[in-house]
Structures are given as C-alpha cells and as structure tokens.
Amino acid sequence: MKPIRLLIIAGSERAGSYNRSLARVAAAAARRDGCEVTELDLRALALPIYDGDIEYGPGVPPAALQLRDALLAHDALLLVTPEYNAFPTPLVLNAFDWLSRISASAPGGGGKEATANKAAALLSASPGPLGGLRSMNLLRQYLGGAFQMIVVPQQFALGKAGEAFDEAGALKDAKAMHGVQGVLDAVGDLATALKPR
C-alpha cells in the first residue's frame, strides 16, 4: 500500500464487534505500510438521530463538523461495517445524514465538499457466510451517488467472523488477510493518483 492519510470508520462499535476487530486489522496493516491512520469512533460522536427540527433549531451538531474535518484531513476513507437486515447500520447512515446537512457556506466548508472525489474503500464482517456483502453493495451506491466519493471496486467480506480472529485479534486465514491487503492497496493507489500535483 502506498503511504497515505487513511481514515478508518467502523459501522459497529458494540463490545466484541467483528467489524471493529477487522478495522483494527486493517489499521495495523496500513500502519505497517507507512500510512498515517486515524480510527474514528462514530458512537463517541454521540450524534442524535437526524431531525429537521434540530437542524433548523439548535443547528447541525458540532460532532458532525468533527466528522467533516476528519474527512478533510485524510486522503481516503476505509469504512468497515456489518449489515443490519441486509442494510448498512444506522450508526453509519445517521452520521452521513448529518454530514450531508452541513452547508457549503459553513465555516470550513460543506459536508459533501469534504467527500466529493475522495477515495473510499469497503470491508465488512459478519457471523454469516456472506460477510455483510449486501451492506457493502448498498454503501457503494450511497457513497458514490449521494456523496460523490470514488469507491474502489476491490472489497472484502469476511464471513463466519466469529471464527476468523485469533486471541491476539489477528486474522487466522492468510487468504482473508490477503483480501484486506488488496483493498488497502487499491485505495492507497487511488488516493495517491487523486492527490494534487
């Protein structure tokens, strides 16, 4: 992987989250490749459920601006998320809903300006055999359409995630690690190509 500034977000922050574990594996691999990595905890942002009355009353929560600023400060996003009922998690969708409501006229710029033409990549993990594949396919459309991100075609879904990690948190299967590394390599190459010269 070419060294870049990589923002990693897990779509689940529950105790024992397989996707949090997979995000840590990816973060460690990216750091070994010389990348500057930030792992952002969406749950710690404590964003309320999107509500127009909040937006037009108190305004967009400051935590949404933190997400925007984190995206602006990095070359690429790696989103590692499970699926809930074959759909991306509410934690991810709610955060990006708020991000989309930051106006382009806001100090620091708009939420969609922070995502437009930014490299992105997807990983997922699930106890089931598909590994969260359906969520990734929907996220690809969502990020590429609503947020104009450039999502690399390479992706990796870790099935049977409950059996995939050893006691140290590493992936047991070399093929699975190869899949993660392939996604990292692809997003690193794209982010490098997109950097201004």
Automatic annotation (TrEMBL):
This is NAD(P)H-dependent oxidoreductase. Residues 5-161 form the NADPH-dependent FMN reductase-like domain. One of its GO terms (molecular function) is oxidoreductase activity. PANTHER family: CHROMATE REDUCTASE, NAD(P)H-DEPENDENT FMN REDUCTASE LOT6. InterPro entries: Flavoprotein-like_sf, FMN_Rdtase-like_dom, NAD(P)H-dep_reductase. GO terms for cellular component: cytosol.
